[in-house]
Design goal:
heterodimer, A: mainly beta, seven-stranded mixed beta sheet, four-stranded antiparallel beta sheet, B: mainly beta, six-stranded mixed beta sheet, 0% helix
Amino acid sequence: DAGVTQSPTHLIKTRGQQVTLRCSPKSGHDTVSWYQQALGQGPQFIFQYYEEEERQRGNFPDRFSGHQFPNYSSELNVNALLLGDSALYLCASSSNRVYQETQYFGPGTRLLVL
Amino acid sequence: AQKVTQAQTEISVVEKEDVTLDCVYETRDTTYYLFWYKQPPSGELVFLIRRNSFDEQNEISGRYSWNFQKSTSSFNFTITASQVVDSAVYFCALSEATAGGSYIPTFGRGTSLIVHP
């Protein structure tokens, strides 16, 4: 049973560029959440997707956007990258069919903005 | 607003020592959920435990145990007879019960546990 997978594992971009990160949820999961984890900090919630729509959003600017596909996989897009966007980006999946099911996290994508 | 405080930034112990990781939380909700996650150097967050606000029973799972006390808003985690493989960053997290049935945890800043052989 494959867990949550993310790609790429590492990424280096320069300020002002745009980046797309990808996530495939755990088999049987239909809900995907994205988190940003800066160095030495805990993960911070960016947004959550269910049924191809953004269901909840954390305190992140509109430069952060996402998408969920019919197969439940998801993308996180960040435009106009800033140095402060350098972080580990974690994807988590869960099943909306199971009430209050725990989220399972992927290994993350490490983004470095120069 | 929800808040999770993990006052211990880093703890260093020698193998076989017992260690307790502290977690204090703040919330106005009467129904909420508490979590502990482990993050090894690989980066993936590994779920350890979930507790709801109505269940104050302590739990033991092998060498791990959790002490939930609503009176002090604490949810502490103890590792008995620590091992080198326990070295990781441990996060405590808090989530309210969402209408959609899915957790949105607020994480603490984590405690880095280093277990020396």
